[in-house]
From TrEMBL:
Name of the protein this chain belongs to: tRNA (adenine(58)-N(1))-methyltransferase
Molecular function as annotated in GO: tRNA (adenine(58)-N1)-methyltransferase activity
GO CC entries: nucleus; tRNA (m1A) methyltransferase complex
Domain tRNA (adenine(58)-N(1))-methyltransferase catalytic subunit TRM61 C-terminal: 69-299
Matching InterPro entries: SAM-dependent_MTases_sf, TRM61_C, tRNA_MeTrfase_Gcd14
Subcellular location: Nucleus
Annotated keywords: Methyltransferase, Nucleus, S-adenosyl-L-methionine, Transferase, tRNA processing
Domain of life according to the entry: Eukaryota
Amino acid sequence: MLASDSARKFSFNRLISNGDLVIVYERHDIMKAVTVSEGSVLQNRYGVFKHSDWLGKPFGSKMFSNKGGFVYLLAPTPELWTLVLSHRTQILYIADISFVVMYLEIVPGCLVLESGTGSGSLTTSLARAVAPTGHVYTFDFHEQRAGSARDDFERTGLGNLVTVGVRDIQGEGFPDEFTGLADAVFLDLPQPWLAIPSAAKMLKQDGTLCSFSPCIEQVQRSCEVLQISFTDIRTFEVLLRTYEVREEKLEDDGSNGSLPCKRKQCSDGGNLISSPISSVMARPCGEAKGHTGYLTFSRLRCL
């Protein structure tokens, strides 16, 4: 799980034990989060896997089923958790998340405010970025959704780094207790411009803000409000193109000008054609994700 050791640093060097959360990896597009429980089994198309066989194994182990099939037991890093978590809302994915963490200048020890929590995809990465001495305070107006996110953070071992609150940030703003204390603020709201004045009060001098919006009209209205208290206003759209790289065998014998097969020398001096040459091919994946949203960054203007 995403738990920390006695030095409060993330570590997956220990062995898997009863109650741990692991990511069961079947292939790059089929993964599942499983809580290890002695006496339980996992059954999939590769066979039956006993949890008891997993105990004492290091993360990354290759485990075999009763049929000889296998899976890998991976540590639930924020990147993998984003791919397997329950979607209560539309989530941010790795390309946008990495951009947010970098441009908000989030480092260990930072205090970060987030609204809204949603499914907690970004929150998990924010928590790792501020660890071991920082903290993320995340808010969602939906009480049941906030409760589910809180349970997920406890499940992944982030309870000491994340505090979930139920609050309508658009209508009420952030709690006054954070005034002037936040290093960064992230907004994922339908009307972010309503929360920007409150966010400005929460930030330290030279603090940074990011607003995620799916529509350019939201960005335009937000930028109008940002100009009052913020500077260095920038908007980005992150588009990710994934490539599929795999080995393919070339069957042609070379007579048509293509690459020949490998040949062996026989004892009588003749040539014997062996297996064809393998070549690594790369091509864009047929299903490419397009627009997710716009990321608008700004910095609190110094007085």
